[in-house]
Write a structure and sequence with these properties.
Layout (H helix, E strand, L loop, with lengths): L5 E3 L9 E3 L2 H10 L7 E5 L5 E9 L4 E10 L7 E5 L4 H14 L3 E6 L10 H15 L6 E2 L3 E2 H6 L6 E5 L22 E5 L7 H8 L4 E4 L8 H16 L4
Parallel strand pairs: 1-3, 6-7, 6-11, 7-8, 7-9, 10-11, 10-12
Antiparallel strand pairs: 2-5, 3-4, 4-5
Helix pairs in contact: 2-3, 2-6
This protein binds S-adenosylmethionine.
Amino acid sequence: MDAKIRLYVDHPLGEGKTVLLERPQAHYLFGVMRLGKGAAVLLFNGRDGEWLAEVTEVSKRGGVLTCQVQTAPQQMPPDLWLIFAPIKKARTDFIVEKAVEMGARRIVPVQTDFTNAGRIQRERLQAHAVEAAEQCGGTFVPEVTDMARLDRMLTDWNPQRQIMFCDEALAGDASKASPLSNMQKGQPWAILIGPEGGFSAAERDRFGSLAQAHPVPLGPRILRADTAAVAALTVWQQALGDWA
Ligand code: SAM
């Protein structure tokens, strides 16, 4: 069986286990992709790896898939959070999509002093994360959290979690270029990306007094926040993540 479609489902997966499809999934598989009985689909649920499944019942309102063999083990990304100040809708969508592809464990939109987007649609962003995981071959979907306030989040900060504080004020400062290369692998981390307006002086003072915050420049030019998110994920994954 040759399966081209990967689908995230919120059901336990294992040999012989059946998955009852919800209406939108049935519509997508049978209405849009025109699959019929006997067709193959790849399934993952973020816990049990990837499974080859066969369509065993087709209906307009539902349908059933039956798991056959595991095609990939569960693979968790490193314990890395991407914390970012949301920007315009399409660029925020881009950040979520890229964070999934690059291997973040959690995606955390935050309100900073100069954040210009007041609200996010968490469920829409979570659906984007699911689509990105389906598309990139990952077996894990990071949670997109509700928008939190950065200052409050730092008050309860887990002292074990290090912060890669992407500081535009250091752009071009080569002497600060690689604090990550001296760090041990395997620790929990968070990457912090600011809004279009950058970080405020008060926020900078706060990071300065936080032992877990490591200011890092991302080259000599000021990057847009969405570019900075991808660049930071690349630098971190290369130094401390699952790329090497
Ligand atoms: N308006 C700010 C300025 O001109 O200084 C730029 C903010 S930038 C568009 C948005 C975020 O991307 C920054 O808060 C920072 O986290 C990150 N960023 C952009 N360029 C960077 C660089 N060269 N080094 C470190 N972080 C950078």
